[in-house]
Amino acid sequence: MKDNKKVTAAIAAVTHYMRMEEEAVLMQQTAMPPVVSAATPATSISPWSMNGRQTQMQMRNLMQMRTFR
After folding, report:
1. Mean pLDDT throughout 27-47?
2. Of 32, 33, 42, 53, which has the most beta carbons under 10 Å away?
3. Could you tell me the pTM of the whole model?
4. Exposed e or buried b for every residue in 31-65, given b needs 16+ CB within 10 A?
5. Could you tell me which of 25, 2, 5 has the C-alpha nearest to residue 13?
6. 35 pLDDT above the threshold of 70
7. Mean pLDDT within 12-41
């Protein structure tokens, strides 16, 4: 009988805690507007621009190694 009361109290406490956490998350979501990430590019990267960047980096590397004058 004594153990049954302890188990019931523990389950009630956990349930209450989980309910409070859910309410807190919902309150935070409604208080703050959704944030749009600026890290995602608006368009996809084209292969032409990728090739141009790679060529520029390769030329810079050759100049740093003093391959040509």
Report:
1. 71
2. 53
3. 0.42
4. eeeeeeeeeeeeeeeeeeeeeeeeeeeeeeeeeee
5. 5
6. no
7. 79
Q: Which tokens sit at 10? A: 């523990």
CA dihedral 4, 6, 10, 11 (to 10 degrees): 10
52 contacts 46 by C-beta, under 8 angstroms = no
Q: How far is CA 3 from CA 9, 11, 13, in A?
A: 10, 12, 15
Q: The tokens 């309410």 sit on which residue?
A: 23
Measured CA to CA, the distance from residue 58 to residue 51 in angstroms comes to 10
What is the rounded distance in angstroms from the CA atom of residue 1 to the CA atom of residue 8?
11
Please tell me the distance from the alpha carbon of residue 63 to that of residue 55, in angstroms, as a whole number. Answer: 12
